[in-house]
Amino acid sequence: MIRCPRCFDALRPVPLEQGAVYSCTHCSGVFAPAEECTDLLGPLVDVDTWRGTDWATFGRQSRLKSPKTGQLMEHVEISWEGKTVELDLCPQTGGMWFDAGEMKTVSEITRSLAQEQDGDFTDVQTKFGARSYLLQLFMNLPIELCNPVRKKPIVTHMLIALCCVAFLWQLSVDNIEASTRTFALVPEAAQGKQIWGLVTYMFMHGGWAHIFGNMFMLYVFGDNIEDVLGRKTFLMFYLACGVAGAILQVAFQTGTLMVVGASGAIAGVMGAYLVLFPKVKVRMVFFFIPLFLKVRYYLIFWIALNFFGLMGDDGSVALLCHIGGFLCGLALALPYRNYDIQNQLQA
Ligand SMILES: [Zn+2]
Question: Long-range pairs for 6-12 at CB < 8 Å and ≥24 separation?
Answer without folding.
Answer: 6/64, 6/99, 11/67
